[in-house]
Here is the input.
Amino acid sequence: MATATDLGDTVALMLESLALSEATMRCSIIWAGDEYPCVGGPEFGGKKMESGGSRLRAKLTIKVRVEVFPDGVGIPKEQQTIQYKRNASADPKAYRIEAVTNAYGAWLELHCEDPNQAA
Here is the structure.
C-alpha cells in the first residue's frame, strides 16, 4: 500500500530542486536594487511590430524561492518591472510581471511580459 507524501516534504523537495537548478542554470533577476538567483524558462518571442520595435506577446515564466529575498524587502508583485539574466554572462532584459503564483509561501512563479506591451 502506498503512503501519502506530506505536503511539507513535497515543498522541501521542490525548494531543493530549485536551488540545484539555480546553481546549474545561473539565471537571476534584478529587482528592488539587488540580484537574486532564479530558474527561468524559455523566453518566448512574438511578432516584431516594427524595425527595432518590441515584440507582441513576448513572455517568460520565472521561479524564485521566497527565502532568497532578505527580510524587509518584500516579494515581487504584479505590474512591477524586473531585469532577467538568462545566464551569468547575459545582458539583463526588462520584463513586467503580469501575474504571480505564490506556492505555499515558499516559491513564486512570475509570469512576465514585454514591458512595452500594453497591460
